[in-house]
Amino acid sequence: MDSLTPATPPKTEALARRYGADVLPAAGPWNETIATMLDHRSVRSYKPDPVPAGALESMIAAAQSAATSSNMQWWSALAVTDPAKKKVLAEIAGGQKHIEQCPLFIAWIADMSRNQRISNATKTPFETMPWLETFMVASIDAALAAQNAVVAAESMGLRTVYIGAMRNDPIRVADLLGLPPQAVVVFGLCVGYATEKGKGEVKPRLPQSVVLHTERYDASREEALRAAYDAEMSKFSARHELQAATWTQRVLNRLGPIKAMNGRETLRAALAKMGFEVR
Amino acid sequence: MDSLTPATPPKTEALARRYGADVLPAAGPWNETIATMLDHRSVRSYKPDPVPAGALESMIAAAQSAATSSNMQWWSALAVTDPAKKKVLAEIAGGQKHIEQCPLFIAWIADMSRNQRISNATKTPFETMPWLETFMVASIDAALAAQNAVVAAESMGLRTVYIGAMRNDPIRVADLLGLPPQAVVVFGLCVGYATEKGKGEVKPRLPQSVVLHTERYDASREEALRAAYDAEMSKFSARHELQAATWTQRVLNRLGPIKAMNGRETLRAALAKMGFEVR
């Protein structure tokens, strides 16, 4: 092994951090890979140190090893280290300083332009292009790939945060990165070493029984379990001096008013201009 | 550690399996987690043995540990072991026998119904629901979660295959699994132990320099590299007695005629009926 895996907590402690000590799921098999994933937290404060030589290539090898529908590989990744470019990307993302600060930013691209080049070279009509299904496959495959890259990065001791705000202005992002038509950045990813302060804490999630159903969808216990999670998240927020709203209130803030979309209700129109019809 | 991680090949061999020996990327850091991901192959032949006790719960703990936009957790998972249900799902998927055969099938759900329940309970209008952006976030977050579950499963020695064909008839799938409106299965996942024959071989992917761009998108070397990949994939197809088409030909078969979509060009209309407007 070329690099040590960072230390991870034992199983019960890892589960308690993720769910709170009162609602531990009946998790079974455990190993260092699972422990690494359980220890995930999104990091928004990075040291200036570059990522190790070959780290990006190891991450992309993991990304390309993820499943891809019919082996079509409808995605690309674009690595940005240029400070001037990262500054513009941070601005597009509404002033997210960690994009400027992280040593490596990866743009994950739903990429149908490669297919268009094959279509052009062979003069074969590309009938399956303009559909929601096609855009979905490209976006989902990009997400599967990116998540493998994240797990690889975290297994090396690096930290990450996804940047959905690339979709605030996908046309400007595409212009900046020189994308051809039919290629769109679906999200970005900051990669680097966390500062001591930025390491943060594992964020609790909904009790497992809220998101995991067996044989049939069943939300009968959801309300009570959500109340327990609200209490857990209020404690988390208090520890981190965040606005002490419950999770339920956060959901309402995010879902209620259209202004919470930061303009992303125009995504479909922007995609159409970029060659994705999304019928 | 409760379970041993299965044996994985050393770095150079793992990279050679994934890319072919002639186009190895300059991968750097390496460890057992990365090796596990590099060893991925989609498996379509399963032993009848059930998954170990707690394996599902460990997979879902990993899934919930993946990043989720604004901590919104807009996804659910539904575990199916009932043979009668799996038989119907296999039929919907165009007769994919491995869905019947695998001991555990997980349906991954873009789930806005939980938000709708919160909206209803608090009488708060849900203005951000009907947009493509919202459906994208739910689908991408489901994909990030599912990929962590896959990595967890593979780290225990289990194998998997994603089933995109749940989107052939999302309404019938939703009816079968008792989903409420505003919840849709975006893809399925078979989980189990591979038969000896079903283990297969790591599938080569496009050379890393085709999918990884630096600072600006650059497809100038793509055509030559694609030709090399066509040759690599022809060898792979011959070894596996598959139709010996090149990868380029497979792309054309999949992209050219609309019939290759198996009816999924109707996805947007189906989603509208299920409460996802996708404006």
From TrEMBL, chains A, B:
Going by the entry's taxonomy, the superkingdom of the source organism is recorded as Bacteria
Q: CDD domains in the record, alphabetically?
A: NfsA-like
Residues annotated as domain Nitroreductase: 40-193
Note the Pfam families from the entry. Answer: Nitroreductase (PF00881)
Xref: InterPro entries = Flavin_OxRdtase_Frp, Nitroreductase, Nitroreductase-like
Q: Give the record's keywords alphabetically.
A: Flavoprotein, FMN, NADP, Oxidoreductase
Family of this protein: Belongs to the flavin oxidoreductase frp family.
Name recorded for this polypeptide: NADPH-dependent oxidoreductase
Q: Which organism is it from?
A: Reyranella aquatilis
